[in-house]
Write the structure tokens for this entry.
Amino acid sequence: MIPALLVVLGMVGAAQSASAERGRGPDFSRVDAAVREGIRKGIYPGAVVVIGTSERILHAQRYGRLTWSARSARPRSDSTLWDLASLTKVVGTTGAVLRLVDAGVMELDAPVSRYVPGFAGGARDQVTIRMLLNHTSGLRAYLPLYRTASSREMAITQLLADTLLRQPGDSAVYSDLNAILLGLAVESAAGMPLDSVVRREVL
């Protein structure tokens, strides 16, 4: 995503410079073409681009649809909110883990059970913090906790009761459960809620 963003930003700068020389508004056709190419390649189903200065919007355009369904609504350039939740895993939770490792509060190769005692027994004892980070823990990709758990405590109980599907360290499968366990480990090691750790140590 970042290289694409840099390409778009580069095109924006070029468009503004070229149009300034011609004495008219910026030409954002290359930006539009780049975003449409991403949709054509199946990288994302839709997008919104809003480009402006502190004084005015120079370009606002919507492309594609909100989901991969042809019946899905089109995004709006003035109000569509995009779900960027997985960024909190990379920036927030992973950042917090690495800060605590750097401070000597957590160890990458320590078993998860050191920080989350309920995650223990059998092959679980082999799962390390590093395995949660690189998705080789053996946990399934996800549990539908949004449907089956009505509270944080119930979600944690269901997560800790789940079984591993693969031998720890054998193969990588992206799993939301790894991030949830990492958050619990961070809270245990730091002695405070995850959002507080992220605010203090990362942001």
